[in-house]
Specification:
It catalyses: N(6)-[(R)-dihydrolipoyl]-L-lysyl-[protein] + NAD(+) = N(6)-[(R)-lipoyl]-L-lysyl-[protein] + NADH + H(+). InterPro entries: Class-I_Pyr_Nuc-Dis_Oxidored, FAD/NAD-bd_sf, FAD/NAD-binding_dom, FAD/NAD-linked_Rdtase_dimer_sf, Lipoamide_DH, Pyr_nuc-diS_OxRdtase, Pyr_nucl-diS_OxRdtase_dimer. This protein has 13 helices and 22 strands. The chain is of the alpha/beta class and about 475 residues long. Strands 1, 2, 3, 4, 5, 6 and 17 form a seven-stranded mixed β-sheet that branches. The chain has a five-stranded parallel β-sheet with strand order 8-15-9-10-11. Strands 18-19-22-21-20 form a five-stranded antiparallel β-sheet, with helices on both faces. Helix 1 packs parallel to helix 8 and helix 3 packs antiparallel against helix 4. It binds flavin-adenine dinucleotide (FAD) and 1,4-dihydronicotinamide adenine dinucleotide. Flavin-adenine dinucleotide binds next to helix 1, strand 2, helix 2, helix 3 and strand 4.
Length: about 475
């Protein structure tokens, strides 16, 4: 017996579950299929983001930051704690509880919005005259018929060629979030977002962390000035980052792993560690979809080919999130999910990649939106830059964290904001103002004239806007 829906969504990560909810709000009958299992084998909707990505990593970043504050900063405030120690299994258990709250929250939202959830693997069976037949395999197999299919199957960690993850010594993001003890020495390959966030967690807890990065430039996607400032802070913290290396053989040893590599200078080197995290990017999940059965077009990386509206080569089949082109970010996946549901309903939404914020939740945090200074230079665009350091911000001084700066780039002629770049305390929150400003095509002068609460970190954004016109008041 088959069940018929207007829309079937495959994958309940941020792209899929949000698309399903929005489609249900618009009056469609919607099913969402997801295969993720919790430790008891039950459903765990939320995808990579909820289970082994955004949420658990931020839980561990919070715990490890508290630990570091207690160890290094409480005394200055007159707080005496005695010896501070970390109970790693308890920290991991708390993280698991946070994940479960989010899994349960999504199941609740499905019920509330009347989205029918299927726990199992979803795959294409065949194209019908109008729509598609899909199979759900798993504990409760089912056959579904749908007029529209939204594929949101996400991505998984990319392994080094010939070095599979065992999640014991050689860890993906999954194993990196489940360690039950602090490794004495931790090696990481890839100084991207995961490498920096996970490296920060385990360094704060006492591991000696070395990150090997292939590119000669640190955080090449970020604004150079911001990347430089962040690198200085990481160096001070003792997070070792070697740039421009070429990783060679990775071997298991009695104590962990040994990584042979060539340094930027050309010298051969060996890094030994108890554990290795490989964070060199992610690959789209399309294997389980039986895409061939319907002729769904994939590119050479295995990603689903879509146009700017997330339409695939098949009528009525859409794809969103990590499984398609564009930044692999949860909020990008969500925006695409909403946009596709609304497109199906005949609305005209659009997702502007230029105003998608990037945030790296290290300490200092790093956040940006829009163009970097090097991109503007390369494009030959005339711009003005305004910079304000947190050192001159009263709230940052009271917090005891004055690292970093806010930088605003504006068009030289029109003053329109072209990019905002931040490194410092809580910039993950401050960046939202910049995103709103850019969406509304604000000028730097607009932000400079908006009243910001005092004392607040957001005053640094106002001052950076004033700096664009060379009239900072507090620096
Ligand atoms: P996913 O979240 O990967 O979800 C896809 C779902 O589909 C999964 O549940 C999968 O099991 C399921 N699935 C796959 N194939 C099938 C099938 N055939 N049948 C049924 N189900 C299937 N992004 C941010 O924006 N902020 C962050 O702070 C952040 N932190 C991160 C930290 C880490 C360690 C990692 C790894 C990623 C992080 N990301 C972050 C990226 C973010 O997790 C992804 O961009 C986001 O999860 C993509 O959402 P998605 O819905 O496209 O796919
Ligand atoms: P990444 O693309 O951010 O970084 C990978 C790094 O590995 C790059 O610097 C790259 O040059 C380097 N690299 C690649 N191959 C290498 C090799 N063979 N040897 C040495 N270095 C090599 O990818 P990452 O960190 O795996 O994260 C995947 C994605 O997940 C990110 O792109 C991001 O979209 C998302 N994410 C987002 C977070 C956030 O928003 N805060 C947090 C974590 C992940």
């Amino acid at each position: 017996m088959s069940q018929t829906f207007d829309i079937v969504v495959i994958g309940a990560g941020p792209g899929g579950y949000i698309a399903a909810i929005r489609a249900a709000q618009l009056g469609y009958t919607v099913a969402c299929i997801d295969e993720w299992k919790n430790a008891a084998g039950g459903p765990a909707p939320g995808g990579t983001c909820t289970n082994v990505g955004c949420i658990p990593s931020k839980a561990l970043l919070q715990s490890s930051e508290y630990f570091e504050h207690a160890r290094l900063h409480f005394a200055e405030h007159g707080i005496a704690t005695g010896a501070v120690r970390i109970d790693v299994p308890q920290m991991i258990a708390r993280k698991d509880a946070v994940v479960k709250q989010n899994n349960d929250g999504i199941l609740y939202l499905f019920k509330k919005n009347k989205v029918t959830f299927f726990h199992g693997r979803g795959s294409f069976v065949r194209a019908l005259e109008s729509g598609y037949e899909l199979a759900v395999s798993g504990a409760q197999p089912a056959t579904l018929l749908a007029r529209h299919v939204i594929v949101a199957t996400g991505s998984r960690a990319r392994a080094l060629p010939g070095v599979p993850f065992d999640e014991e010594r050689i860890l993906s993001n999954d194993g990196a979030l489940r360690l039950q003890a602090v490794p004495k020495r931790l090696a990481i390959i890839g100084a991207g977002v995961i490498g920096l966030e996970m490296g920060s967690v385990w360094r704060r807890l006492g591991a000696e962390v070395t990150i090997l990065e292939g590119l000669p430039t640190f955080l090449a996607a970020a604004d150079e000035q911001i990347a430089k400032e962040a690198k200085k802070a990481f160096d001070r913290q003792g997070l070792k980052i070697e740039l421009g290396v070429k990783v060679g053989e990775v071997k298991a040893t009695k104590k962990g792993v040994a990584i042979a590599y060539t340094q930027a200078s050309g010298a051969e080197a060996m890094l030994e560690a108890e554990r290795l995290i490989v964070s060199i990017g992610r690959v789209p999940n399309t294997e389980g979809l039986n895409a061939e059965a319907v002729g769904l077009k994939l590119d050479e990386r295995g990603a689903i080919v879509v146009d700017e509206l997330c339409r695939t080569n098949l009528p009525g089949v859409w794809a969103v999130g990590d499984v398609v082109r564009g930044p692999m970010l949860a909020h990008k996946a969500e925006e695409e999910g909403v946009a596709v549901a609304e497109r199906i309903a005949g609305q005209r939404p659009h997702v502007d990649f230029n105003t998608i914020p990037w945030v790296i939740y290290t300490s200092p945090e790093i956040a940006w939106v829009g163009q970097t200074e090097q991109q503007l230079k390369a494009a030959g665009r005339a711009y003005k830059a305004g910079v304000f350091p947190f050192m001159a911000n009263g709230r940052a001084r009271a917090l005891g964290d004055t690292t970093g700066l806010v930088k605003i780039l504006a068009d030289a002629a029109t003053d329109e904001i072209l990019g905002v770049h931040m490194v410092g305390p809580m910039v993950s929150e401050l960046i939202a103002e910049a995103v709103v400003a850019m969406e509304f095509k604000a000028s730097a002068e607009d932000i400079a004239r908006i009243c910001h609460a005092h004392p607040s970190l957001s005053e640094a954004t106002k001052e950076a806007a004033l700096a664009v016109d060379k009239r900072t008041l507090n620096f």
